[in-house]
Amino acid sequence: MRLDGKVAVVTGGASGMGLASVKRFRSEGARVVIADYNGEAGEAALTEAKSAGFGDAISFIRTDVASEEDVIAMLDHAVDRFGGLDVVFNNAGVGGAIGPLTETSVEDWDYTFNVLAKGVFLGIKHAAKILRKQNRGGSIINTASIAGLSGDGGPLVYSAAKAAVINLTMSAAVELAPDLIRVNAICPGFIATPLAESGDPEGTRIQFAKAQPWPEYGQGDHIAGAALYFASDDSLFVTGEKLVVDGGLTASGPKLSGMFPRTSARDARVSGVTKGSTGAPPELRRL
């Protein structure tokens, strides 16, 4: 599944699943733009990629995916730097609002939806404009979540936003199909990334490995492999799909809050919003 000659943009590309996808895309021949809100992490990722021998066919631009101006600048950067656009992986995410429904503020709701849903909308909107103009098709990939597939798969606002991403993916796939633009989503399960590990990598990995039938914890490389499939010509007849990558977790049944009590809103002792790997601290209050 080579990507020779293709230009790819990966949001949230400075860490976790995004950085794993950046490296995989580049190793398969793509020229890649790392886009991330965290400027320090982005520069570090760029340095790491270049030191790994990925050369100058990789670039970084600081991007707030909730800003239309930033998203336009991000995609223009790819075209200006590498001469075109073929793949956009709308991967940027945060944990967002946590806590009981009755304690969730409008501000925390808006922040979560701005990053997780609006960010994907803007990525699709402006990528489609460029891809249509080029008139050679392309691939848009969105990070959703198993949390968007049920009512008990994660924090309420996060889950609602990821469900929106899944529906948006399907609707956009229908609209853009005549332009040969494929739109697909990846639904990760519990993936051990800096966003999920919360300062306890070893404990998180052990917990995640026990959560699903597959006896190993999920890694960023697992998502990168799925993204590579959607980015490559091997998926030319696949659009509107939501690919679950979760080690069999959803296949084994619901009751996820029983496995992870801290994700249950009723059991939560805090409310507020987390901001993932953006570099901004969480804003939490005890109940």
Properties at a glance:
43% helix; globular; alpha/beta; three-stranded antiparallel β-sheet; Rossmann fold; 10 strands; seven-stranded parallel β-sheet; 9 helices; 287 residues
In DSSP terms (H or I, runs of 4 or more residues), the helix count works out at: 9
In round numbers, the mean pLDDT is 92
- Most strands sheet: 7 strands, parallel
Helix amount: 40-55%
CATH architecture: 3-Layer(aba) Sandwich
Order of helices and strands: EHEHEHEEHEHEHHHEHEE
Structural class by sheet pairing and helices? alpha/beta
CATH topology: Rossmann fold
CATH superfamily: NAD(P)-binding Rossmann-like Domain
Number of domain units: 1
The CATH class name reads: Alpha Beta
Question: How many beta-strand elements?
Answer: 10
User: Percent of residues in beta strands?
Assistant: 15-25%
Strand order of the largest sheet: 3-2-1-4-6-7-8
Task: Please mark out the parts with pLDDT under 50 across 5 or more consecutive residues, or reply none.
Answer: none
Shape: globular
C-alpha termini separation: 50 Å
User: Could you tell me the radius of gyration in angstroms?
Assistant: 18 Å
Can you tell me about this structure?
It is a single chain. The chain has helices spanning 16-27, 39-54, 68-82, 106-134, 156-176, 194-197, 201-211, 220-231, 256-259, and strands at 7-11, 31-36, 58-62, 87-90, 96-98, 138-143, 181-188, 242-245, 270-274, 283-286. It is an alpha/beta fold and 287 residues long. The protein has a single domain (7-279), classed as 3-Layer(aba) Sandwich (Rossmann fold). Strand 2 (31-36), helix 2 and strand 3 (58-62) form a beta-alpha-beta unit. Helix 1 crosses helix 8 (220-231). The mean pLDDT is 92.
